[in-house]
Every structure is written in C-alpha cells, then in structure tokens.
Design a protein that fits this description.
216 residues; Rossmann fold; 5-stranded parallel sheet; 3-stranded antiparallel sheet; kinase
Length: 216
C-alpha cells in the first residue's frame, strides 16, 4: 500500500506514521530521515542539502524530490510505503504522481489528520523539554506542577518553536502551502480525513479502519 500522511504541526503525524507503517509492514519514509541519511552518507545530494540546512534555509524542491525518488526506488519500498512530510505542496505532489506513473504505480490513499487550531496550539505550546535528558513533558497532559524533570531532575524549558506565536506562524505557513495540497488529493478522490483528537490509540484505530478496505 502506498500512503501519504498529511496534517498540521502537532497533529501527531510522526507517531501515527510509525504505528501505521509497522502495522502494514511498509517503510515509513520522512524527508527528515532522508536528509539525515544522505548527509551522513556523504552523497552528492546530501552535500547539496547540507549547504542549505547549515544556513537555515529550506532545501529546494529539486534536491528534495531527487532524494525522495532515490529512496522510493529502494527494494523495501517496492510494494508500498508511507510518506510523512512529503509532498508539502502541489508541485511536489504532481511530481510524485509522475514518478510513480513511471513505475506503473500510484498512491492508494492520502490520510489527513484533522485537528483544530486551538488544539494544535495547546499541544505544542504546552510542551516543555528537559535540558539534561531531552525528555518532553506537557503542562496539561503530564499534570506537571513544577519545572523539574521527574526522570533526571533537569530543568524544563520551552523551546522557541513551541512558543505560541511561533506555533501560530507555523500554522499559517501550513495553511498557505498545504491546504491546496489537501484539495489536490480530494480532487484525486484518494483523500480521507481522520479525526486526530483524543488518545493516540484511538486515532490509530480510526486510521487503520480507514485503511482496511484497501488491505489485500
């Protein structure tokens, strides 16, 4: 099965991608993983990407797409994959469609994790990271009464990208870039929305239920 997972920051894509891919025995492929593999492996594409990443710039579409093409051509992705973080916009989606068509393949389904803005802000702005062990706690979900890590005694702090104003900016970027992508896949008749609120296990159950008709 060939799946794309989309959703706003804080929707739980990484967590759900791991569970779904494991259930279906297909590789979970994220652009972050691909970038790290190419950079650490010293590939030509990795060297190109690193120049942008070191400057804090976005890696250009052509480099990202070339990396994704190479990854999808590997043996473990031949019979299926789950893409998390790609495509991010309509041009990338159109290119992915062409790549798969060259291999006489197509996407089976695009799962959209649906969660409202208030919940996203609550999830992300409530996160606190331990400065010693790196564990992430949540001021609401973990019932934290202090700024001390229960695991190691380190100090908990709020990362810059978890601050409310930054989260709101990330949501605006997502809506600008990805809302057209969601419509693109709706027009392709392969988009299925999944309610991403509630316990992780419940969200996973909803996603697997949506996939069940496609399982062979």
């Amino acid at each position: 099965m060939r799946i794309v997972l989309v959703g706003p920051p804080g929707a739980g894509k990484g967590t759900q991608a791991q569970f779904i891919a494991s259930h279906l025995s297909i590789p979970k492929i994220s652009t972050g993983d691909i970038f790290r593999a190419n950079v650490s492996g010293g590939t030509e594409l990795g060297r190109q990407a690193k120049q942008y990443m070191d400057r804090g710039d976005l890696v250009p579409d052509e480099v990202t797409i070339a990396m994704v093409r190479d990854r999808l051509a590997e043996d473990d992705a031949r019979d299926g994959f789950l893409l998390d973080g790609f495509p991010r916009n309509v041009p990338q989606a159109e290119t992915l469609k062409k790549i798969l068509a060259e291999w006489d393949a197509r996407l089976d389904i695009v799962l959209e994790l649906v969660v409202d803005e208030d919940e996203v802000v609550r999830r992300l702005s409530g996160r606190r990271t331990c400065d010693r062990c790196g564990r992430i706690w949540h001021v609401d979900f973990d019932d934290k009464q202090d700024d001390i890590c229960d695991d190691c005694g380190g100090h908990l702090f709020q990362r810059d990208d978890d601050k409310e104003e930054v989260v709101m900016h990330r949501l605006e970027v997502y809506k600008h870039d990805t809302a057209p992508l969601v419509q693109f896949y709706a027009d392709e008749h392969i988009l299925v929305g999944i309610d991403a609120t509630g316990p992780v296990e419940e969200v996973t159950k909803r996603a697997l239920t949506a996939l069940r008709p496609l399982e062979k």
